[in-house]
Amino acid sequence: MWSVSFPSSAADDRLAATLTILERLVGFDTESAKSNLALAADVEAYFAAQGVDYVKVPNARGDKAALFATIGPKIDGGVLLSGHTDVVPVEGQAWTGSPFTLRRANGRVYGRGACDMKGFDAICLAMIPEFQRARLKRPIHILLSYDEEIGCRGGLDTIARLGGDLPRPGAAIVGEPTSMQVANAHKSVATYLTIVEGQEAHSAKPHLGASAIETACALVGELYRFADELEAVADARFDPPFSTIHVGVIHGGTARNILARYCAFHWEFRGLPGVPQNTARAHIDAYAGRIATPRLRIETQTETEVPGLASAPDSRAERLALKIAQADRTITVPYASEAGQFQAAQIATVVCGPGSIDQAHRPDEYIALSELEAGIAFMRRLAAELE
Predict the structure, then answer these.
(1) What is the 3-state secondary structure (H, E, C) of 124-178?
(2) pLDDT number for residue 11
(3) β-pairing verdict for 183-186 and 171-174
(4) Three-state secondary-structure class, residue 102
(5) What is the pLDDT of residues 230-257, one digit of tens each?
(6) pLDDT of residue 314
(7) Cα four-point dihedral sign 300, 306, 309, 310
(8) Catalytic one of 23, 31, 86, 116
(9) What CA–CA distance (Å, rounded) separates 348 from 21?
(10) Annotated catalytic residue 86
């Protein structure tokens, strides 16, 4: 049962509440391959204890769910705070303590997801009593999604309902770790599986067969050659300043002296805003069509497509976030997020959250207490803006 008390609005009390909630959130193993329903049920109990109206949005299989909560008037035009509940795996990483037990040391708190991005989630939840005390003329919404780490899939069903049976926000702030700087752009990401099926033969007579490995290597080589071409279109705000292609996994073959019947590789394309997301896929499909033979079958399957976030200077989200972040410039981030999905739904969106992406996905992931405090201050100024 939830027993968190909020005796005052003092910064230390809010930080203590944030740490209490973060400890609970980190305690749930919500690696993307696993269900998040236990965490969702815990947050639902918290919403109920705080008297917050919310909607649960399950996935088709019913083993995961997003939560959408509203504080303030149930009207369009408010601000949505978006965070995800899933985390990346810990297997094979050298942690010095339990990844799912929050530890505090040296002005930091450690645990899987503490930075990416349960720290932001905890701030949003801990701030609910202050949001409720504020005289909000426009609502604050909180969306906690799932499956962000494996393709940003878990918020789409909720986004589709905004402006329908759910209020449509006028701006969205995605709380990925930016050290509380306002990011107004990020690249897209698309991931693919390319499968090559050839014909087996003895390696002493390669002309009798068709090697799937040889063809896969040719395709990989063409992808990297095309990646060099992509460098001609650059945006200095990004690092690296151009679209990229990367092949991460390749496997195939039966034995050294057998022409491989099968080979497959997983690869990705990260495109600058404005570069069509299917750029690399269209190129490799055309190349595959030129080299395919009756003995060779080449197929590329799209696994995920996450749109980029394009800069929209002077959008409502950018103006608001810069003001409450007390900043005078925006940045870009090198990773993809759910922000592009909100923008695709015509909702002005930025990325701004506590912690550094440099600490995410690593053993002994952590977030500094000062970052949590900065996030709390940001939320206080947001509430004041909406009064």
Answers:
(1) HHHCHHHHHHCCCCCCEEEEEECCHHHCCCCCHHHHHHECCCECCCCEEEECCCC
(2) 54
(3) unpaired
(4) coil
(5) 999 999 999 999 999 999 999 999 999 9
(6) 86
(7) positive
(8) 86
(9) 29
(10) yes
Cβ neighbours, 10 Å, residue 181: 18
Catalytic residue among 147, 148, 149, 373: 148
Residues β-bridged to residue 56: 67
CATH number, span 11-185+308-385: 3.40.630.10
What string of DSSP letters covers 57-73?
A: EE-TTSS-EEEEEEES-
Distance of CA 377 to the CA centre of its chain: 24
User: Which amino acid, 226?
Assistant: F
Q: Span 167-189, mean pLDDT? A: 97
Report which residue type is found at 326. Answer: Q
Residue spans per domain, the chain: 11-185+308-385, 188-306
Tokens matching residue 19:
């740490």
The CATH number of 188-306 is 3.30.70.360
Residues 6+ positions from 219 with CB-CB distance below 8 Å? 194, 196, 265, 284, 287, 288, 291, 298
44 is catalytic: no
Q: Which two tokens stand for residue 361?
A: 């996905």
Residue keyed to tokens 């073959």:
253
